[in-house]
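Retry 2 of 3 after timeout on previous attempt. Resubmitting structure tokens to design endpoint.
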């Protein structure tokens, strides 16, 4: 097995450090929470850059947590590992004796370790059991979703989480197939999806299974629910001058983040008043408006940066 640091290229690494640097320099013993530790690339760079920094790392994937912890062991007590879903950020921070933090980093979506390990079932291009759980010690598998959910619920998941136009056709074929035998291998499902989508549509837009696999993964891990719960808590944990940085990789994540950030940075003063009343003033300000995109050079060096915002 290769060392974690040689396997993985962290997305928008320099930009994340640049955005978090001002708050990290506010006091002598800053604290940042890496809510999606993965293989630890962002955390490693932050700990190297800021010698007095403590990073609280959170990940729901025990395998990722184990590998990142080994990678970051040289930092001693400056790195604190936690096996949890990131919507428990408040509990995790308090458990380490902190009330406020300087910064919070979210790198949303599926991690490199989950994509690269075939038997996890996240990939539609290689055959494996339909699992897709980020934490294989708990929760419902994609196979259970496909084989036990009512047709109407499956259609809703594919439409809502995958923005799949042919959700009804795909689900009709899933129901027919599972009546004969449970669907389990990833490539069996991928082939069924391909057959469900008109040939003309399949010529563009990449692998036709992409949207359905995304939808099943989001449902299995309650990804959007976790983001919706975690971000407001992360904002409340910030000390004055603190920052939250979020990397999102698809429109559903991006929409939730922007809505929460917009609400947090909008004054509650009634629109018909000529001045902004202090008691209704926004608690937060946007560091950048809209989204920061990866450079062409980064995309060329790391294809997984293509869709990041």
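Retry 2 succeeded. Sequence:
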């Amino acid at each position: 097995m290769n060392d974690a640091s040689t396997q993985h290229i962290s997305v928008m690494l320099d930009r994340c450090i640049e955005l978090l640097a001002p708050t990290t320099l506010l006091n002598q013993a800053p604290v940042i929470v890496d809510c999606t530790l993965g293989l630890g690339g962002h955390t490693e760079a932050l700990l190297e850059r800021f010698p007095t920094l403590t990073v609280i790392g959170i990940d729901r994937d025990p395998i990722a947590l184990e590998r990142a912890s080994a990678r970051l062991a040289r930092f001693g007590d400056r790195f604190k590992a936690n096996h949890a879903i990131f919507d428990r950020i408040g509990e995790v921070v308090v458990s380490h004796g902190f009330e406020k933090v300087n910064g919070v980093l979210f790198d949303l979506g599926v991690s490199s370790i989950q994509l690269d390990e075939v038997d996890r079932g996240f990939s539609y291009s290689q055959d494996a059991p339909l699992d897709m759980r980020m934490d294989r010690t708990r929760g419902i598998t994609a196979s259970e979703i496909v084989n036990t959910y009512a047709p109407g619920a499956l259609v809703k998941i594919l439409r809502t989480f995958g923005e799949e136009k042919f959700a009804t056709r795909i689900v009709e074929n899933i129901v027919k197939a599972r009546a004969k035998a449970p669907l389990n291998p990833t490539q069996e499902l991928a082939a069924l999806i391909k057959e469900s989508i008109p040939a003309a549509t399949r010529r563009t837009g990449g692998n036709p299974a992409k949207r359905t696999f995304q939808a099943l993964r989001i449902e299995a891990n309650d990804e959007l629910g976790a983001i919706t719960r975690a971000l407001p808590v992360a904002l409340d944990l910030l000390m004055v001058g603190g920052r939250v940085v979020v990397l999102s990789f698809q429109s559903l994540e991006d929409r939730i983040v922007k809505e929460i950030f917009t609400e947090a940075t909008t004054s509650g003063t009634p629109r018909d008043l000529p001045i902004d009343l202090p008691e209704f003033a926004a608690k937060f300000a946007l560091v950048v408006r809209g989204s920061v995109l990866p450079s062409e050079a980064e995309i060329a060096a790391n294809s997984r940066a293509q869709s990041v915002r």
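Attempt log closed. The first helix runs from residue 4 to 7.
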